[in-house]
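From the shared-data thread, chain only:
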Amino acid sequence: MRHGALITWWAAERRDLPWRRTHDPWLVLVSEVMLQQTQVERVLPYFESFVERWPTPQRCAEAALSEVLAAWQGLGYPRRARNLRRTATLITQRHGGEVPSGLDDLGDLPGIGPYTARAVQAFAFGIDTGVVDTNVGRILARWTGHRLTASQAQRIADELVPAGEGWSWNQAMMDLGNRICTKRTPRCRDCPVRKWCAWAGSQGPDPADRSAGVSTRQAPYEGSDRQARGRLLAALSECEIGRAHAAAAMDLEHDEIRVQRLVSELIAEGLITADGDQLRLG
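Structure, as tokens:
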């Protein structure tokens, strides 16, 4: 009965997202990589532009890394762009240009962890596997009434997927967590599956706190290494610059040691290259 109640609610309340209008494995994979640690609203314009430009793994593999990084600029976590292009290359070389459906094959691709692999299985291939993101992890902890380990959360999620409904069930769970079973001020009275929840309406401690699959608060972005790295990558997406100008691009003119460390890290990660004193993307 819980399954029917949730799916019925979702049919009326579902969010219309472009990656939900396709089962193309490459497009689903791109969306899931973009959604890692990034809000849906930020991803929307990047996703549509990216898949229009590189609609297949082969096309992405043929692109220069600098092109992919430039297209990713502003979305954050540029390692994802580098890994996505590497993934496109491996899909082309190892799998004949077709995104694999097996959990192990997906997990062997750069930047594709257990969550992303299962999301691709469920949303591209219709496989009945549980997809445990932050929202789902929170729901499962509240439903059971206690904190869960990662393996417990995955086992419960897998058991809950109704046969043949992997795609719709996982989407419904994510929307329930996004719209109703939110981290703060959950709308328990509006929840279509409230009667199956051990925590609904309780004044006790939230079992979702520090439970598996529930993310912790990120460190502040302002003044962080992420911000400084992003500024340099943004500058390099416009043109190459000399090392001497990296500090100004990062807004770190008075911290040369930090500048050199960040530049060295970006080079080691393959996000920028150095040709003498000149720096450029990829």
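The chain has a mean pLDDT of 91.
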